[in-house]
Structures are given as C-alpha cells and as structure tokens.
Specification:
Elements lengths: L6 E2 L2 E2 L6 E11 L5 H6 L1 E11 L2 H6 L8 H13 L6 H13 L4 E9 L13 E7 L1
Antiparallel strand pairs: 1-2, 3-4, 4-5, 5-6
Helix pairs in contact: 3-4
C-alpha cells in the first residue's frame, strides 16, 4: 500500500522515495540587485531533485507514467532565463513551482548556484537551496 514515512495506528502516509535528479544545468541570466548584473548577466547553475513514485513507469516501461527529464530540464532552464529578479531565492522558488506543476512530483529540492556573485572576498560558490512539497 505504498511507503510509509512513519507508523501511526490506522494511518499510512505514503512518501515517494524515488527521485529524478538534474545536476549542473547551466543558464546565462540577468538576475541580481546591481545594474551591471541585470545588464551583462552571468552564469547560474541549477540542481533539481524531484521526488515521485517511479514504480508505475518502471513496471509499464511507459514514459507517460513519469516526468520526462529532458523536457523538465528545458522547463527549468526557461524558468531561470525568464524575467530578471533581484534574488536567487526568487529564482529557486520559480524553479520549484515549475517542477511541482508535474502531477507525479510530491516534493522538490532546488539549488541555485551563482558562481560569479559580486562578492569582495575569494569564494568557490554561492548557492541557495529550497525544498517544497505539494
């Protein structure tokens, strides 16, 4: 009857443990609080993990029973490349909503990296990570 997150007598709460992961999607976009970020743009790197039950697709070998990760990647890139915003937190939320629009997805984790963020000290990466559920 599905997977359980915890046991409570008489109540079973299904939780999808399967996932589709997209790592390192690269997008040039114009997000940021400074004018030069909006004018010149910069690279953003996005990681997405979508939790869903993959057993219907696995048992039927039917792409329609899952989320097409190629199409999902294109949707994520389009969401990041769309209208500029100040914060990468806003970009992450936008991406999360795109992923959750796919009915089979129960939960999503999105990390948006801004590797060329205007920071005055040496750094390897700046990123925000959010998790959203349906």
């Amino acid at each position: 009857m599905g997977r359980c997150a915890y046991w409570n007598p008489g109540i079973r709460v299904p939780v999808a443990k399967d996932r589709i992961t997209l790592t390192g999607l690269r997008v040039h976009a114009n997000h940021g609080v400074f004018d030069f970020e909006r004018e010149q743009g910069q690279p953003f790197i996005v990681d997405v993990t979508a939790w869903l039950d993959l057993s219907p697709a696995a048992l039927s070998d039917d792409l329609a029973q899952t989320v097409h990760y190629g199409e999902l990647a294109e949707e994520v890139v389009a969401a990041v490349a769309s209208e500029p915003v100040d914060l990468i937190e806003t970009v992450a939320e936008r991406v999360a909503q795109v992923v959750l629009a796919h009915k089979p997805v129960d939960r999503v984790e999105v990390t948006v990296h801004k590797p060329e963020a205007p920071i005055s000290v040496p750094f390897a990466d700046v990123a925000v990570t959010i998790e959203r559920t349906r």
